[in-house]
Amino acid sequence: MNGPRAYNDRFRHGIKKPMIARTPIVLQPRFDEHWQQLLAAGLSNCDELFDALAIPVEQRPALAAHNKQFPLRVPQGFVARMRKGDPNDPLLRQILPLAEENVPVAGFGPDPVGDHAALTGAGLLQKYHGRALLITTGACAIHCRYCFRRHFPYQQQHARQNNWHDVITSLKQDTSINEVILSGGDPLLLTTSHLQALTDQLSELTHIRRLRLHTRVPVVLPERINAGFIEWLSKLPFQRIVVIHANHPAEIDANVARHLTALRSMPLTILNQSVLLRGINDDSETLTDLSERLFETGVMPYYLHQLDRVHGAAHYEVPDETALVIHQQLRQRLPGYLVPRLVYEEAGAPSKQPLPRC
Ligand SMILES: *Cc1c(COP(=O)(O)O)cnc(C)c1O
Ligand code: SF4
Question: Ligand 1 centre from 77 Cα, in Å?
Answer without folding.
Answer: 29
